[in-house]
């Protein structure tokens, strides 16, 4: 006699099988997406042909014929649109990297200050956060540009610092370095010092975990970073030759200039993003159990060491995921540079190049691809770091 458990199952239709239905729906969805994409592509090609617009990226080899206010590589008006692309990419990366670095530093300081037992420091940090994170970034860019940068005095009445830095409404003029005879030994010394610091940090961490003894890693690392390259300079000579800006006529010549559009953009994005990072830092620190602080105090650790070695390492596991989003937002918000004329990817390619060539699809596609690549690169780096600091369960 067959039991219920061993009874043969009734054969149903193939459409009642969940696996078959799942594969069927996925195949239908893929076909629908491909068909829709092909329709858009074919319709676009048809419309372009009707208007006599030739598609493709051959225009990148044509001469641009316009000047660019800031370029990190050599550029003349006779250069190609391809070189304009490289300049726009470098300018966008410049804003993103500088903004991320300074926003992280300021955000961590404000976030820690937000939890300070000192009433004044705590309230000042709160006012900073609630003020800057609730004002749209474009308005902050306008404020720094039109209310702070442009009203600065002209080059003849510029604010000078040490006769080498000059701040005016034309930007911040500063000395620019060039390679000298001692540059290669200096570079090798710096690289070897950085490798030594990495080895030192790992050794100090292993020593601390095994014996509990704390090694003054930051101070020793700083001493090495100053002493080794400094000794190299004494032995092989100055590694740099400096071009100092000089006032000639109505403007400065020589050196490097940080144009007011770049300064306003970096200041606005840094201040704005730092307010959000500060809240991420505050929430991450508060997510760490108070028992960790009490345990550190019972072991006699000073508050500064407790924060650096106990609280922050655990808080980073909570801080990093939302911090990644803030980095992505800063990189994407750099496209607001078009509002004040800073020559980034949007201003150059989605603006000037598009208007001159009429290659709207190609120009927009290139601009979108750049921001997509930047965002994916930031996500990959932050996800890699997040995995390194994540808790590994047994």
Task: Note down, in words, how this protein is organized.
- The chain is of the alpha+beta class and 394 residues long.
- It folds into two domains: 241 residues, MetI-like (MetI-like fold, Orthogonal Bundle), CATH 1.10.3720.10; 65 residues.
- The chain contains eleven helices and eight strands.
- It has a four-stranded antiparallel β-sheet. Strands 4-5 form a two-stranded antiparallel sheet.
- α8 packs antiparallel against α9.
- It is globular.
- It starts with 17 loop residues before the first helix and ends in a 5-residue tail after the last helix.
- The model has no long low-confidence stretch (mean pLDDT 85).
- It comes from Pseudomonas cavernicola.
- It is found in: Cell inner membrane; Cell membrane.
- This is Amino acid ABC transporter permease.
Key structural traits:
394 residues; 11 helices; MetI-like fold; 2 domains; globular; alpha+beta
């Amino acid at each position: 006699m067959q039991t219920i458990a061993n009874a043969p199952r009734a054969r149903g239709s193939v459409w009642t099988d969940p696996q078959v239905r799942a594969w069927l729906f996925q195949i239908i969805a893929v076909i629908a997406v491909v068909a829709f994409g092909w329709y858009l592509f074919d319709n676009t090609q048809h419309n372009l042909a009707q208007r006599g617009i030739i598609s493709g990226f051959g225009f990148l080899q044509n001469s641009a014929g316009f000047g660019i206010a800031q370029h990190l590589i050599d550029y003349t008006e006779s250069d190609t649109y391809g070189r304009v692309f490289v300049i726009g990419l470098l300018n966008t990366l410049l804003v993103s990297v500088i903004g991320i670095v300074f926003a992280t530093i300021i955000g961590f300081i404000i976030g820690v200050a937000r939890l300070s037992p000192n009433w004044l420091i705590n309230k000042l940090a709160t006012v900073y956060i609630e003020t800057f994170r609730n004002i749209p970034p474009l308005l902050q860019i306008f404020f720094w540009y039109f209310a702070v940068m442009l009203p600065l005095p002209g080059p003849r009445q510029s604010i000078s610092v040490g006769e080498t830095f000059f701040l005016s409404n034309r930007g911040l003029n500063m000395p620019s370095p060039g390679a000298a005879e001692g540059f290669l030994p200096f570079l090798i010394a710096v690289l070897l010092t950085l490798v030594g610091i990495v080895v030192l940090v790992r050794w100090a961490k292993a020593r601390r975990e095994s014996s509990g003894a704390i090694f003054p890693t930051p101070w020793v690392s700083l001493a090495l970073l100053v002493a080794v390259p400094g000794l190299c300079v004494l032995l092989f000579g100055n590694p740099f030759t400096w071009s100092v800006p000089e006032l000639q006529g109505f403007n400065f010549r020589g050196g490097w200039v940080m144009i007011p559009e770049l300064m306003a953009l970096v200041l606005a994005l840094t201040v704005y993003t730092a307010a959000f990072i500060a809240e991420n830092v505050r929430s991450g620190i508060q997510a760490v159990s108070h028992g960790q602080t009490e345990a550190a105090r019972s072991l006699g650790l000073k508050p500064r060491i407790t924060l650096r070695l106990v609280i922050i390492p655990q808080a980073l596991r909570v801080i990093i995921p939302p911090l990644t989003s803030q980095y992505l937002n800063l990189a994407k918000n750099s496209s607001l540079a078009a509002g004040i004329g800073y020559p980034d990817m949007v201003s150059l390619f989605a603006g000037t190049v598009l208007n001159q060539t009429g290659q709207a699809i190609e120009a927009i596609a290139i601009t979108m691809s750049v921001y997509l690549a930047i965002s994916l690169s930031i996500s990959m780096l932050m996800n890699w770091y997040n995995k390194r600091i994540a808790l590994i369960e047994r």
